[in-house]
C-alpha cells in the first residue's frame, strides 16, 4: 500500500482542531433526543435545555476510547473486512430516490433495482461490501422498507452490509436480523456484523431519529459511521477552514456520545462535506473542494486515531458522460490516496446523490479497479520483480514479449480493464459504442450470470419469519 | 425626487437589512410617501437584483440578502401601507404560505424558493420546517394567502404533501387555495397524482408557476 499523503500542514491541522474545540465549548451542539442529553449530563457536560457545551478534555478522552480499527464480520468469513489501518472498503451509492437510465429516462427506484445493485456489488471484484440503502425502494411501504432492504443484502450476497439507522426501533430490527444471520446477539456483540450511518443535522444539531439509531448500535456494540455533511456556503461557512472546523466539531460530538454509551464501541469518522452551487443552491459534489474536504477528513481521523468514511465516485452529472467520469475519478482518487477507509457512494451515483445509474455503477467499478491497482504501487520485494535477469537475457535491442517472465508477470502487475476500450480505431468503429452503451451491455451480462451464494435454509427461514412478524406489527400500528 | 428612494434601492441591492429598516423608519417618521418608497425604492432595488440574477451576474447570497432586506423594510411599512397612506396604492403580487412538510427538516431549497418569490414581488410567509397541514392553513387564514407551497426532500415525507391536500378536501376548503409542491424527490407526476395545482423543479420555475396561478 502507498503511504497516505497529508493535505494539511501540522499547523493547519492544529488550528482547525482548536477551532472545533472552541465551537464545542463555547457554541455547543443541540441534541433533541432526551436520553442522549441524560447521558451527557451524567458525564458532567454543561447542558442548557437541549444544548450541550463540551469540555474539550472530555471530548479528547472519549474519542481516545474509540478503536483505531475493527473487523466487520460477513456471513462468509472470506469477506470479513478490517475497517482502518491500510485498508479501503468500497461499496455502492447510498440513499438515492431515482434511477437514471442509459437513454436519459428518469424514474423512481424500486425494490427490483435494489436487488439488482446488491447483486452487482456481490458480483464485483472491487466492491468489498454491498453497502446499504443502495437505492430508496419507493414501491415498498416505508414502515417495512428497512426489513426488505436488509433481507436483500442477506440473500443476494455474502458480503458485509449496512443496517438502518432511522430511529431506535428500525435500527434494532436490522440488528436483530444480523444476529439471526450470525447465530445470536452474543455472537455479533463480540464480532460486529453491522454498520450504519448516523448524520448530524448541520449546523450543530443531532435529531431524535439519528440519535435513536446511534443508541441502538452503540448499546449492541455494532459499528457506526458518524458523519457530517456541511454544504459550504449554505449550511456552513463558505470558507474551507470554517466548514471543516464545523464538520469536525459535529463529528467529535457524535463520537463522544457513542463512547459515553458504550466505551470502545466501533465508530468511523465521517464526512460528506462539499459546496453549495451559488447559482442554484444545490449541493455540488464533483469538485476539488469535495476532494479537499475528504482528504482533510482522512487526516483528522488519523489524528484522532479512528477510521474514516468519506468521498466516493461523486459527480453532479445527470448522465454517464465525460463529466461523470472526470469528476468521479477526481474524488475517488483523492479519497483513496489520502487514507479514507470506508467509502460509501463508491459506485453508481449521479447528480449529487439524487440518482443511481446502472451504467455509472459499471464505470465506477472500473475506476475502482484502476485505483485499487494504483494503491498497490510498486512491488520491489524479490529479484524476480526487479527483473535484472530477464533484462540481461534479452540484452540490448531485443524484446520481452516471448519471455516466460513476461507471460507470468503481466497478469500479476497490469490492471486489465473490463469496460475501457483499447482497440484500434477500426476495431472500435465496428460497433462504435461509447462508454455508456458498453456499460449497459456489461451490467446486463453481469446480472444475467450472477448466482447468489446459497444461504442455510434454516437461517433463511428464521429471518423470513422475523420479517413476517415485524411487518405485521409495523403495518398494523 | 427624494434621495431616500435611491438610498433604499441601494440598501436592497447591497442586501443591507439594517439599513433597509432604518430607511423605512425614516420614511414613516418624515411622512414620506410610503407607496413611492416601495415603488421607487424597494421594488426598484429588488428588480435590479432580479435582473442580475437572471443574467447570471448575481448569485444566491446576493438575491437572498436582498430579499431579506426587502422583507424587513416592507414589514416596517406594512401598517402605513395598509392604512392606505400615500399616493396610489401598493399591493403585493399575492400572498404565499411556504413550509417544509411534517417529518422533514430540509430547508435550504425552501429558503431559496422563498427568497426568489419575495424578490419577484410576492409576499411570502415562511412557517419553517416539519409543519403539519393545520399549520399551513392557520397561517394562510391569518394573512389571507391564496397559495400553499409545500417542500419535501424525502421519499418518506412526500406523502405529507398528499396529506396536506387531503386535509383541505376533508375540511371542505380545497377550492380556497392553490397548492404547489416541490423538493428533490418530487416530480410533476407526483404533483398530478396527489392533485396539486402545480409542481416546480427549481426556485425560478416556482416563481413562474406562482405568476401563472395568480395571474
Ligand atoms: C443537505 C442535505 C441534508 C441536510 C439538511 C440541512 C438543511 N438545513 O436543509 C441534513 C444533513 C440535515 C440532512 C438530513 C437527512 N437527509 Co438529506 N440531504 C441533503 C442533500 C445533500 C441536499 C439537500 C439540499 O439542500 N439541496 C439543495 C436545495 C437547493 O435543493 P432542493 O431542496 O431540492 O430545492 C430546490 C428544488 O427542489 C425546489 N424546491 C424545493 N422546495 C420546494 C417547494 C416548492 C413549493 C417548490 C415549487 C419548489 C421547491 O427549489 C429549490 C431550488 O431550486 C440531499 C441530496 C441532494 N442533493 O438534494 C440529501 C437527501 C435529500 N437527504 C436524504 C436523507 C435520507 C436524509 C436523512 C434521512 C439522513 C441521511 N441519511 O442523511 C436525514 C433526514 C432528516 C429529516 N428528518 O428531514 C436523502 C433522501 C433520500 C430519500 N429517501 O428521499 C437525500 C436525497 C440524500 C441521499 N441520497 O441519501 N440532509
From TrEMBL, chain A:
BP-aspect Gene Ontology terms: methanogenesis; methylation
Pfam families according to UniProt: MTTB
Record keywords: Methyltransferase, Transferase
InterPro entries linked: MttB-like_sf, MTTB_MeTrfase
Single Gene Ontology MF annotation: methyltransferase activity
The EC number(s) this enzyme carries: 2.1.1.-
UniProt record similarity statement: Belongs to the trimethylamine methyltransferase family.
Protein name, as recorded: Methyltransferase
Source organism per UniProt: Acetobacterium paludosum
UniProtKB/TrEMBL annotation, chain B:
Keyword hit for Metal-binding: yes
SUPFAM superfamilies listed in its UniProt record: Cobalamin (vitamin B12)-binding domain, Methionine synthase domain
Ranges of residues in domain B12-binding N-terminal: 1-89
Ranges of residues in domain B12-binding: 93-215
UniProt KW Metal-binding keyword: yes
InterPro entries: Cbl-bd_cap, Cobalamin-bd, Cobalamin-bd_sf, Met_Synthase/Corrinoid, Meth_synthase_dom
Domain of life: Bacteria
Pfam families given in the database record: B12-binding (PF02310), B12-binding_2 (PF02607)
Keyword terms, alphabetized: Cobalt, Metal-binding
A GO term, aspect molecular function: cobalamin binding
Gene Ontology CC, one term: cytosol
Listed GO biological process terms: homocysteine metabolic process; tetrahydrofolate metabolic process
PANTHER family listed in its UniProt record: METHIONINE SYNTHASE (PTHR45833:SF1)
Family: Belongs to the methylamine corrinoid protein family.
Name this protein carries in UniProt: Dimethylamine corrinoid protein 3
Species: Acetobacterium paludosum
Phylogenetic lineage: Bacteria, Bacillati, Bacillota, Clostridia, Eubacteriales
Amino acid at each position: 500500500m502507498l503511504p497516505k499523503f497529508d493535505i494539511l500542514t501540522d499547523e493547519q491541522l492544529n488550528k482547525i482542531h482548536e477551532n472545533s474545540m472552541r465551537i464545542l465549548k463555547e457554541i455547543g451542539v443541540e441534541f433533541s433526543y432526551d436520553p442522549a442529553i441524560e447521558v451527557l449530563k451524567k458525564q458532567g457536560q454543561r447542558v442548557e435545555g437541549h444544548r450541550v457545551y463540551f469540555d474539550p478534555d472530555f471530548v479528547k478522552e472519549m474519542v481516545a476510547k474509540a478503536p483505531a480499527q475493527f473487523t466487520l464480520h460477513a456471513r462468509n468469513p472470506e469477506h470479513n473486512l478490517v475497517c482502518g489501518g491500510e485498508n479501503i472498503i468500497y461499496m455502492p451509492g447510498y440513499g438515492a430516490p431515482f434511477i437514471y437510465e442509459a437513454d436519459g429516462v428518469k424514474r423512481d427506484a424500486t425494490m427490483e433495482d435494489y436487488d439488482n445493485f446488491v447483486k452487482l456489488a456481490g458480483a464485483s471484484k472491487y466492491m468489498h461490501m454491498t453497502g446499504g440503502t443502495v437505492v430508496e425502494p419507493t414501491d415498498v411501504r416505508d414502515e417495512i422498507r428497512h426489513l426488505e432492504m436488509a433481507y436483500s443484502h442477506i440473500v443476494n450476497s455474502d458480503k458485509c452490509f449496512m443496517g438502518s439507522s432511522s430511529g431506535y426501533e428500525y435500527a434494532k430490527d436490522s440488528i436483530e436480523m444480523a444476529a439471526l444471520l450470525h447465530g445470536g446477539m452474543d455472537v455479533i456483540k463480540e464480532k460486529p456484523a453491522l454498520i450504519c450511518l448516523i448524520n448530524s443535522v448541520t449546523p450543530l444539531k443531532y435529531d431524535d431519529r439519528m440519535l435513536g439509531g446511534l443508541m441502538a448500535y452503540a448499546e449492541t456494540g455494532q459499528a457506526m459511521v458518524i458523519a457530517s455533511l456541511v454544504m459550504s456556503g449554505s449550511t456552513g461557512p463558505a470558507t474551507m477552514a470554517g466548514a471543516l472546523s464545523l464538520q469536525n466539531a459535529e463529528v467529535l460530538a457524535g463520537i463522544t456520545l457513542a463512547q459515553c454509551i458504550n466505551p470502545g464501541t466501533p465508530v468511523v469518522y465521517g464526512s460528506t462535506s462539499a459546496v453549495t452551487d451559488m447559482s442554484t443552491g444545490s449541493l455540488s459534489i464533483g469538485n476539488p473542494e469535495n476532494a479537499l474536504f475528504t482528504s482533510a477528513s482522512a487526516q483528522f481521523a488519523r489524528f484522532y486515531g479512528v477510521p474514516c468514511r468519506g468521498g466516493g465516485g461523486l459527480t453532479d452529472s445527470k448522465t454517464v458522460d465525460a463529466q461523470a467520469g472526470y469528476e468521479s475519478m477526481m474524488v475517488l482518487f483523492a479519497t483513496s490516496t489520502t487514507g479514507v477507509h470506508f467509502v460509501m457512494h463508491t459506485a453508481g451515483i449521479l447528480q449529487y446523490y439524487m440518482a443511481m445509474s446502472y451504467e455509472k455503477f459499471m464505470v465506477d467499478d472500473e475506476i475502482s479497479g484502476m485505483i485499487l491497482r494504483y494503491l498497490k504501487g510498486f512491488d520491489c520485494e524479490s529479484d524476480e520483480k526487479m527483473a535484472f535477469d530477464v533484462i540481461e537475457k534479452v540484452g540490448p535491442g531485443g524484446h520481452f514479449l516471448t519471455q516466460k517472465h513476461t507471460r507470468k508477470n503481466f497478469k500479476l502487475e497490469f490492471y486489465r480493464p473490463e469496460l475501457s476500450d483499447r482497440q484500434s480505431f477500426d476495431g472500435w468503429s465496428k460497433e462504435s459504442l461509447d462508454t455508456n452503451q458498453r456499460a449497459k451491455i456489461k451490467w446486463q451480462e453481469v446480472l444475467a450470470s450472477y448466482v447468489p451464494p446459497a444461504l442455510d435454509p434454516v437461517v433463511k427461514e428464521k429471518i423470513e419469519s422475523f420479517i413476517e412478524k415485524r411487518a405485521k406489527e409495523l403495518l398494523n400500528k | 425626487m427624494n434621495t431616500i428612494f435611491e438610498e433604499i434601492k441601494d440598501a436592497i441591492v447591497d442586501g443591507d437589512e439594517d439599513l433597509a429598516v432604518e430607511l423605512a423608519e425614516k420614511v414613516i417618521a418624515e411622512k414620506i410617501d410610503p407607496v413611492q418608497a416601495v415603488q421607487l425604492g424597494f421594488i426598484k432595488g429588488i428588480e435590479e437584483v432580479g435582473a442580475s440574477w437572471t443574467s447570471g451576474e448575481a448569485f444566491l447570497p446576493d438575491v437572498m440578502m436582498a430579499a431579506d432586506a426587502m422583507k424587513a423594510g416592507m414589514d416596517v411599512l406594512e401598517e402605513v401601507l395598509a392604512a392606505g397612506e400615500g399616493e396610489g396604492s401598493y399591493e403585493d403580487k399575492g400572498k404565499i404560505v411556504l413550509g417544509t412538510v411534517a417529518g422533514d427538516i430540509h430547508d435550504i431549497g425552501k429558503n431559496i424558493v422563498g427568497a426568489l418569490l419575495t424578490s419577484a414581488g410576492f409576499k411570502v410567509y415562511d412557517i419553517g420546517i416539519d409543519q403539519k397541514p393545520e399549520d399551513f392553513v392557520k397561517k394562510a387564514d391569518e394573512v389571507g394567502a391564496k397559495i400553499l407551497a409545500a417542500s419535501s426532500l424525502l421519499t418518506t415525507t412526500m406523502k405529507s404533501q398528499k396529506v396536506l391536500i387531503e386535509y383541505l378536501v376533508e375540511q371542505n376548503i380545497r377550492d380556497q387555495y392553490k397548492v404547489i409542491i416541490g423538493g428533490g424527490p418530487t416530480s410533476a407526476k407526483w404533483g398530478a397524482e396527489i392533485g396539486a395545482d402545480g409542481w416546480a423543479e427549481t426556485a425560478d420555475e416556482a416563481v413562474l408557476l406562482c405568476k401563472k396561478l395568480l395571474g
